[in-house]
Amino acid sequence: MKYLLSVLMLLIFINNKDAKSEILPNDLFSSIEVVEIQMTALQSYSITNNEGIYQCWLFAHPKNKSFTGPFNSFINMISDTSYNVLLNSLNFKTKLLLEENNIAKVSVDVDAKNNKRYNLTWILEKTYLSKECINCWMTLSVTQPQFIGLLN
Asked: Residue 93 to residues 20, 32, 65, 90: CA-CA distances in angstroms?
């Protein structure tokens, strides 16, 4: 049931890209689902409202936020750096590399709109945020995009 609910929430978000970013961290999502929520949001990025980046920000670990700064800095970090390959990507594929105790690593291959493929690794940690989020996966860090080839 837990998995079914998570998939349903993700499908609603994917099929309603104009919806407000309201998927909040909670204990229902697996580590890989958190990455897929973030990637799907970044895929539907619009410069006019930054909702895709905001959805990604909602799943940023508090330690990550202390490093990246406030939301406006987070916007700049994604849109004005090598991370911009995540915005409006054509496709992405996730693979769970490790999940031990409270740490997970997820590999993401991204087909960017510049017709190049990149790989990044998400590091996630289980976090206590509230009574709704006692053991929720949140993004601790993301490696720099590594070019791995041209798209066919």
From this structure: 24, 11, 25, 11
Neighbours of 31 (CB within 10 A): 24
Structure-token pair, residue 35: 């990455």
Structure letter (DSSP) for residue 146: E
The DSSP line for 90-144 is SEEEEEEEEEETTEEEEEEEEE-TTSEEEEEEEEEEEE--BTTBSSEEEEEEEPP
In degrees, to the nearest 5, what angle opens at C-alpha 148 toward C-alphas 63 and 121?
A: 20
Question: Contact 27/1 with Cβ under 8 angstroms?
Answer: no
Tens-digit pLDDT profile for residues 106-141 = 999 999 999 999 999 999 999 998 888 899 999 999
Cα(67)–Cα(105) distance, rounded to whole angstroms?
Answer: 19
Q: Note the CATH number of domain 2-150.
A: 3.10.450
Q: The whole model's pTM is what?
A: 0.86
pLDDT reported for residue 3: 43
